[in-house]
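Hi, here's the filled form for the chain we discussed.

Project: internal
Contact: R.S.
Residues: 509
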Amino acid sequence: MPELDQLEMRTRVDEILNRRTAVGLAVGVVRNGSLEFFRGHGVADIGSNTPVTEDTVFRVGSITKTFTAIAVMQLWEEGLVDLDAPANDYLHAYPLVPARAGFRPATVRHLLTHTAGVGEVLHPSGVVRPLFGETVKVGRPVPSLREYYREGLRIQVEPGTTFRYTDHGFATLGQIVEDVSGQPLDRYLREHIFEPLGMADTDIVRSEPAQSRLATGYNLRSGGVKAVTDYEVVTAGAASAYSTPRDMARYIAALLGGGANQHGSVLKPTTLATMFAAHYQPDPRIPGLGLAFFRGNADGHPVIEHQGIVPGFNSQISVAPDDGVGVMAFTNGASDAMLWMPAELGSLLNHLLGVPDEVIRADVPKRPEIWGEICGWYYLPGRLTDVRARSMLGAGAEVFVRHGELVLRFLSPIPALYKGFPLHPDDDKDPYAFRIDLAEFGPVTLRVVFSREPGAGTTAVHLDVMPLSLQKQPAATNPRRWLTGALAVATTAIAIRRHRAIRRQHRMA
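And the returned structure, exactly as it came back:
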């Protein structure tokens, strides 16, 4: 590979920082087994004016899930875990408890693909608490998962039928690692993943050396920047890891190197390839999910990635295994980073791969003769406490024609999502494949495909994000109609009361 143009890369990162706001941001490029480019911007801590460097410790949030998944696959390589066996076969601390008799058992593979039927929020109050109630303030005791889940973790829907992103499933995988290996999860990860890969500053518990270099997490508010109250994460196997850009570069090098880097090995190449393969696809036209890793495609180049979001911190790793290149980014306080970081980092990876960013195609004809079949409202099945999905999709989505365009609108309280997005044809051989433009969130588009069943027509819409699927419902059940009707009734009632009040005033006069 030709050497990276350091000045060009720095310019590209500075352009991101011109478009986006971040207290501190670290961006790196990994090729040829090493960190070939690094750009640290801003400060790790405002009070001490400590700059962001390769050795700044960040919380990497849900990237922790990939560490836990590798631990599970190590046990699988040893023949100690069967991915398709019931997870309860390996759990000793607490059971997975089905909400309804007759549910099939939730397997280890279900947990690794977020399809075990576990909800995102343990208790409804978690909806309004930091990290959905999975944190405790520093200095307070962190409960064990046995204490946290008490009589067991509830399986809310039939395993294998629904994708729902959840920390609790991967916390449970961490418990399986403990129960099968006989070691605490933090020690197992140190001895079997972090130390072999030379990741000396990575852990899921806070060490004294890491504490001295730990970035402060911030929120950007109307009154300025405010530090996040320090916390520990209960769901350790899902979201508690601390790491540095230097260590994460070594991790990415191992992901690109078939499970090994210059320091050591943690998996066989075939095992890592299995993790990268598709294990859940709501539709064959959507890349779907591997074992813990999300899958993407950059103009024919397979991409494996994961994001991390915890209070005050955002992170992203994206790797192109066939091309030997990966990118990473970490921030300790940025506005809307969960939306723009994947898009900006994806664009940076596209540049390194020499492929264009995804664009809306202008060479595919529209097919209005099928629009009547597609139009309608689509519901996201599951509980209202599936926060990430509900925050994006609200009550579901509508597809309708506006000003001669086919439009997808999310029934969400977020104005940018409720206003609707034109559906642009994306495949001249498939009239049910579309793409929407999300330019306001970054250089990104979103693929949208509709599935059909013989004799039933269009039955579902699938989004290439997370990935999510919504089922078509009868028009009479559309909540927007109910809301519009309720608003109309309320408006009429107010008008009648106002008219009566005016008449009374006239009579009294």
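Let me know if anything looks off before we file it.
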